[in-house]
Amino acid sequence: MQSTMMRVPLSLNHVLERGGVLFPESEIVSRLPDKSLRRLRYADFHRRARALGAALARLGLRKGERVATLSWNHYAHLECYFGIPAAGGVMHTLNLRLAPDDIGWIASHAEDRFLVVDDVLLPLYRQFAPLHRFERVIVVPFGGARVPQEFDDYEALLEGGGDFDYAPHAEDDPIAMCYTSGTTGRPKGVVYSHRSTVLHSLVASLPDNWGLSGRDCVLAVTPMFHANCWGIPYGAVMLGAKLVLPGPHLHPVDLLDLMQSESPTLAIGVPTIWLGMLQAYESEPGRWRFPPGLRTLVGGAAVPEALIRAYAKHGVRVDQGWGMTETSPVCTIAYEKPEFRDATPDERFKRNATAGVPVPLVDLRIVGDKGVAPWDGKQVGEIQVSGPFVTGRYHAVDDPSRFAEDAHHNLWLRTGDVGTVDPHGYVRITDRTKDLIKSGGEWISSVDLENALMGHAAVAEAAVIAIAHEKWGERPLACVVLKPGKQATPEELDALLSKSFAKWQLPERYDFIAEIPRTSTGKFWKAKLRERYRS
Ligand code: ADP
To answer: What is the DSSP letter of 90?
Structure first.
């Protein structure tokens, strides 16, 4: 027997149509570089996203071709989220925090055909332009500057008119891609489909997860170039929620001002943002009030229980989520399962300081030295996940080390995160096997720093580890062994690294040591080093 249900492909275009037709009055508020606010109704956003689709089709964009974005969080970036896939293209968000060489390499690896870039980011574009030739560079006059003649003007393109029809597609066709830092070697591309995005939006929006509804106002601080802004733009448009996009103004005072005028009910970002905001808030009592009923969704790095408690004092609820670019990204969210309905506030704080429980459609297991470990809250292993919005490979590179197959031939993503799961299904992240440092929500590769340092004539060996940092979560510490009789100063090493790393990626500190501890197989024994510098 066969089911009688229609085989309608899941489609992001349905989400755009739904948003525009059902919620024409919902608002998208964007903060411009001059700090003024630009308000756009969903009806206009819908028209403009379709106009972008039409313009890209006119420019000859073919199905599956990449259109890169280099943009802050604002209306035009949101239009790209929907307008590029509407034309059959793949939106490739470039991370503007990376060093120009890396951005250029990534654009070239993804074979991006067109670029949509904010006028205020043209100086950054010019730094990596020699590394990759985009056929068209479309400039968003976000900062109000006149678009230089050699580029296309985004607004003029949108006014180009013409009929628009969504490009035909299957549900597994790609709509977006995002590169994620590799431990070694270059970043790797993850490609999302219509299907994975729609399923992720539905699941992540559920009451026990984001608890998102059309009555919400969402302040998205998480960059739109970061794992699709955790999927919030898709979920918000699907449900008609008001979206508040802070543009380039991420200073705590700016965010607090924005909260006063827009009264978000849900705000998302990494712990560094919330820590800074709390300090600003408490340093000037009475200047701001957190909007009543505000919830925040914090993730991307471990959320300290102290932070959750501190916000509770101001009536703000902090929910923690865990996930990765490879997983769309939401995999687990902390909330009170039914058996904890009567939990005391203390118990709730403790639960919210875990990574939470797996969301629907995501299977999660931990694999230790002796294979799959039980959920007893004690046994530690690598966290592996499987599901319809988890990547099964990387774009154009083979990396079998990141995947595992079980006896039933199911594929699992090896996350590189290590932790336990308790008998109730709450995941606790305890460590990371990935040799990466997460500073303010952005990655720094320790291996890349080490290789660059070892390129200095006076350096015999270098090992880079993460050290805890109050503001940034983690910062790199470089342990350097100098060659006999040779000298190097931190300033010299910084100067060398500055050639290939962004400023914020440079080590917080250098420690010149006699030797780097090694494991029995002769590898750097980073666990030992981490232990040494823990305090
Ligand atoms: P994003 O930061 O957008 O979630 P990335 O792919 O850049 O996506 O980073 C994912 C990694 O960030 C995870 O594999 C994990 O190491 C770390 N991470 C994310 N959320 C948490 C969390 N709640 N607790 C601890 N680490 C986290």
So the answer is: E
H helical segments located in 232-344: 232-239, 252-262, 271-283, 305-313
User: Judging by DSSP bridges, how do beta strands 136-140 and 152-153 pair with one another?
Assistant: parallel
- Residues in contact with ligand 1 (CB, 6 Å cut-off): 180, 226-227, 299-303, 320, 322-325, 329, 355, 415, 417, 429, 432, 438, 441, 443
CA distances from residue 388 to 49, 180, 194, 359 in whole angstroms, order as listed: 27, 19, 11, 12
**Cα separation values, 494 from 98, 435, 442, 510, 515, Å:** 17, 20, 19, 10, 21
**pTM attached to this predicted model:** 0.93
3-state secondary structure of 250: coil
Triad 358, 363, 366: Cα angle to 5°: 85
Q: How far is the CA of 262 from the centre of ligand 1 (A)?
A: 28
CB crowding 57-77: b at 16 or more within 10 Å, else e: bebebeeebbbbbbbbbbbbb
Q: What is the pLDDT of residues 2-40, one digit of tens each?
A: 999 999 999 999 999 999 999 999 999 999 999 999 999
Residue 527: φ, ψ to 5°: -60, -40
Which residue, chain included where needed, has tokens 């043209």?
Answer: 122
The 10 Å CB-count burial string (b at 16+, else e) for 428-453 is bbeebebbbbbbbbbbbbbbbbbebb
β-partners of residue 37 are: 31
Q: Which helix or strand (DSSP H or E) is residue 387 part of? A: none
Residues composing the chain:
535
The pLDDT mean for the chain works out to 95
